[in-house]
Amino acid sequence: MDKVENPILKPNKIVAVIAYLFMTILGGTILLMLISMIYCNIHNLDSSILIDILAGSKEEYGEYIRANAIVSAIANMLDYLITLGFVGFFMRNYLVEDGQKFKENKKYLIWYIPLMAAAFFLISFGVDVLVSKYVGSSDNQIFIENMLINGGAVYIFIAVVICAPLVEELIFRKAIFSFLETKPKAIAHLASFILFAVMHMLSTSFEDPGRWFLLLVPYLVSSILLCLIYEFSKRNIYASWFAHMVNNLIAFILMFI
After folding, report:
1. Does any domain span residue 223?
2. 224-236 tens-digit pLDDT
3. pLDDT, tens digit, for every residue of 173-189?
């Protein structure tokens, strides 16, 4: 007798998107607060002070400089690991399907993917350098560099290089394109690259709109390129995932140079 799968556990891209949004908007903050209290208890620090620093209502100082960086790095890593667990589980059917399609088109994809990954990095890196000359580093980059300097390299590597590319490609490419598969291609591309860019700017202050929009440009360019890589790979998630992962890996390495 065949085993009947629990309908609650069946692949469901809507559940995956909800999980992603929850962890991005609220779950990460909850993790940050919990880890802050645990870290402060272990290191005999005042958790209320650290929480105020994390909330931006108090300047960091002394031991709290490292505490801020380490707690943020651990919370960021756990946030992505949990998100990857939910998104990967509820979108596992797409991973299996695209894995099979990869085998069927491997003669094309085996040269297409590394070539596009290299092109993606070179273009996105060039745009980022140009924008940074006018407005400096993005808040996200400064945040990551601070965590690296203060000992959060391993946590950042797991989050940014391993987890984030797969989570974001499943959500911003596979899920969005799937939701809009009956619409003209241009609509899916537009929705994908705008949502991807805006979600990466949530933590950036809008006090200076001009600077905010300039910092948005590299994310828009990156998302447009990833959409094109995804589209011309016959919508294979492994193509955009690899390009995204290689880009983040090289950017991570360059931070140490």
Report:
1. yes
2. 999 999 999 999 9
3. 999 999 999 999 999 99
